[in-house]
Amino acid sequence: MKTTLLLACMACLSTASFGAIAIGNVNEFTGGSTDGWGTGNPNPNAPYSTNIEGDDLLIVTSTGVAGPGGRMIVFTTDPLWTGNYLSAGVTAIGVEMGNSDTSVDELEMRIAFNGPGGWWMSHYGYVIPVDTETDALFPISPNDMIYIGGGTVDVTATLEAVSEVRLYSSTDPTAGTSPRGDQLNAILGVDSITAVPEPGTTALLGGLAVLLSAVLIRRRQARS
Ligand SMILES: [Ca+2]
């Protein structure tokens, strides 16, 4: 009896904890939480949440030096972002990003998804000049995706069973067999990562807009 109950509970937990992608899922990085986004270990400059002028956001730092933390990339395997995007009707990802870089002119931001069909990237990239911010809306319907590597080369298979999502800066995004961020010295602010039903729904994100870069600049000035 106890064994049966235990197995039933485990089944419940696994159902609840995997593949919870749904329209409206959002990460706001409140209360110091990274909401499951990270860079793996070890990283001397791991992403962290901070509050800037009343809004919590995620700060991602890359050193530009070979080794852990050298590349501009952040990823998640959190249940909020894994599972079947096609049945959920999620066809775009909104992200607020600010480039507070001090050593390069711009970041070329990309988003990519891993699953049984391999790594697939939204064809749409966002170039963010230094000291500016962007309300990005990445279209991720099957026709919007470009193959990077791995798996069975089947975009539907990946979007039906996403296991990892990566947000990264890359001027050569399809090089290699998996997404790798550019090796550069940069600081990226990330906020309000949102699962939305279709491209063109930027109005959903309009109310969430934050002048990330401006506040990052002010923060930097305040420190100096
Ligand atoms: Ca926030």
Provide structural commentary.
The protein is an alpha+beta fold. It has one domain (19-223): Jelly Rolls. Helices cover 19% and strands 35% of the residues. The chain has 5 helices and 13 strands. The protein has helices at residues 2-17, 85-88, 155-159, 202-206, 212-223; strands at 26-27, 37-38, 48-52, 55-63, 73-76, 92-99, 106-114, 119-122, 126-129, 132-139, 145-149, 164-169, 185-196. The strands form 2 sheets. Strands 2, 5, 7, 8, 9, 11 and 12 form a 7-stranded antiparallel β-sheet that branches. It is globular, with a radius of gyration of 18 Å. Mean pLDDT is 84; it is low at 1-16 and 201-224. The site of calcium ion has 7 residues, from strand 4 and strand 13.
In short:
The protein is an alpha+beta fold and 224 residues long. It has helices at residues 2-17, 85-88, 155-159, 202-206, 212-223; strands at residues 26-27, 37-38, 48-52, 55-63, 73-76, 92-99, 106-114, 119-122, 126-129, 132-139, 145-149, 164-169, 185-196.
SSE map:
Elements: H1 2-17, E1 26-27, E2 37-38, E3 48-52, E4 55-63, E5 73-76, H2 85-88, E6 92-99, E7 106-114, E8 119-122, E9 126-129, E10 132-139, E11 145-149, H3 155-159, E12 164-169, E13 185-196, H4 202-206, H5 212-223
Antiparallel strand pairs: 1-13, 2-5, 3-4, 4-13, 5-12, 6-10, 6-13, 7-8, 7-9, 7-12, 8-11
The structure holds calcium ion (CA).
Calcium ion binds at residues 28-29, 55-57, 191-192.
